[in-house]
Amino acid sequence: MNLAGILAASTSTAVLVEGESDRAAVEALAARQGLPLARRGVQVIAMGGITNIGHHLVALLDLPPNATRTLRVGGLYDAAEERFVVKGLDRVGLRPAASAAPLSEHGFFRCDRDLEDELIRAVRVDAFVELIAAEGERRSFERLQGQPVQRDWTVAQQLHRFLGSKAGRKEYYGRRLAEVLPLDRIPEPLEALLRWAA
Which of 65, 161, 162, 195 is 20 to 30 Å apart from 125, CA to CA? Predict the structure, then answer.
């Protein structure tokens, strides 16, 4: 994998996230908190799926022998996909073999299900439904709720499904949820990641 043209020359900390929705949320929340990521040398990189983490770690850390910079690498991941992060960190020697230390000690922070789920819980279901209505998508959400397979789901589960039901929606609402999130309810993995990165 060649990250030329992706990794900025000024980057000293790379934050790896699964997709564009995660990147949008991290960047939006950092902006709200007054954290100038780029000025601090922090770059958020969407990997296009957690299974790509090994390739990204190798590409990021395979610096030429005469390189004048060191690169810190961290990120967010979903609990069910922890094995991919462990394998990737082991592959590049960032985690001692058979280490029992939490991955947060290596800069990687775990979401219970995924970042969208963390954001939905933090914003709260009613507030998210109101946001969808304000964005003019209430009818779309109600149509999804009326589908037979979703009828018995909780509203939180329906909201999660709604995010992935249209191209670009996940990224858009990842940003919007981070923009309306009460700052005293920031999900712990997201808060910990920004604290680590800054």
Answer: 195
pTM for the structure as a whole: 0.91
Q: What is the pLDDT of residues 136-167, one digit of tens each?
A: 999 999 999 999 999 899 999 999 999 999 99
What are the residues whose beta carbons fall under 8 Å from the beta carbon of 61, sequence distance 6 or more? 71, 73, 92, 94
In whole numbers, what is the pLDDT of the chain averaged over residues? 92
Helix axes 169-180, 20-32, angle to 10 degrees: 20
Beta bridge partners of 75: 16, 108
Q: Give percent of the chain above pLDDT 70.
A: 94
Cross-strand pairs, 14: 43, 73
Does residue 29 contact residue 190 with C-beta atoms inside 8 Å?
yes
Distance of CA 49 to the CA centre of its chain: 11
- From the list 39, 9, 5, 155, the residue with the least C-alpha distance to 31 is 39
Tell me the C-alpha to C-alpha distance, in Å, between residue 6 and each of 1, 36, 89, 177, 192: 11, 19, 21, 26, 25
Q: Which long-range contacts (CB under 8 A, 24 or more apart) does 47-52 make?
A: 47/16, 47/17, 47/18, 47/19, 48/19, 49/18, 49/19, 50/18, 50/77, 50/78, 50/81, 50/84, 50/85, 51/84, 52/1
Strand order in the sheet with 72-78: 42-46, 13-17, 72-78, 108-111
Report pLDDT for 97. Answer: 72
